[in-house]
Amino acid sequence: MQKFIAVSIIVFLAFFIGVENNQVLAYGWGYKKNTDHKPPDIGEYQGLLDKYGAYYADLSGDKVIYLTFDNGYEAGYTGDILDVLEKEKVPATFFVTGHYVDREPELIKRMVDEGHIVGNHSYHHPDFSTISKGSIQEELEALEQAVAEVSDQEQLKYLRPPRGIFNEQTLKWTSELGYIHVFWSLAFVDWETSKQKGWEYAFDQVMNQIHPGAIVLLHTVSSDNAEALEHLITELKKEGYEFKSLDDLVIKDEIPRPIYGF
C-alpha cells in the first residue's frame, strides 16, 4: 500500500484511502500533470487548502519559484545541493524527519546557518490520517525539539505531511497547532536511487513542468537532482524566474489566514 501511495502521489493521480478506525476519508496529494507552464488544477482540494491556510503553489502569477526538498535519510548529496544553493544565493526549505536529524545534525545546522528553512516532516513519518491529534502533536513537537537541539532554528512552522496523506481533519488539527501545510505543484519520480537516469532527465522533468509560482518538490537522495540543480537554477534565472523562500510566500499572501485555538 505504501508503495502504491508514493507512486500515485508523484504521478499526480488522486486517490482515496478508507480509514477503518474512524471512517474518515484520507487523500493522497495529487493532480493531473501538465506541461502548459501553468499551475495544475487541484479541483476540490483548493477549497480545503483555502479553508485551512495551506499552500501548493503561489497563485499570484509572479514568476517566482520555491525550492523544497524532502529529507528522510542521507545518500551523500545534500552537501553538494547546499553548495549549489550557496553559490547561486538561492533559498530552500528542507522538510526533515527525526531519523534525518538524529543521523545528520551537522547538515541540519548547516541548512539553518546558510539561511535555509527547516520544515517539519514529522519525527517517525506516520500516516496522520490514522492517528489522534495528540499523537500528531507529539510527532511535530518531537521533531521541532530535535532540530532546536542541533541548530539555531527553534520553531518549525511549515509542515509537509508524511507520504502526502491528509484530510480535512488533519488540516484542521495541524492548523490549530500553528502549522502551515505546504504541498507542491511540481515533482517527479526522483527518489529511486537505483534508477537514476542522468542529470538531463531531472532537468527536463522540471523544465517541462515549470510554471510561475511553482513549489518544487525534490528529494536529496537523487544524484540526478544534485547534478541538475545548478543547470536548473541558471536556466530558470535566464528565463526571468526568481527563487524565494516560503516565508516570502506567506508574507505576500494578503488573504486572511484562519487562526484556531488562540
TrEMBL record:
CDD domains: CE4_BsPdaA_like. SUPFAM superfamilies: Glycoside hydrolase/deacetylase (SSF88713). Residues 63-244 form the NodB homology domain. InterPro entries: Glyco_hydro/deAcase_b/a-brl, NODB_dom, Polysacc_deacetylase_ArnD, Spore_PdaA. Signal peptide: none annotated. It comes from the Bacteria. PROSITE patterns: NODB (PS51677). This is Delta-lactam-biosynthetic de-N-acetylase. The lineage of its organism: Bacteria, Bacillati, Bacillota, Bacilli, Bacillales. The gene is pdaA.
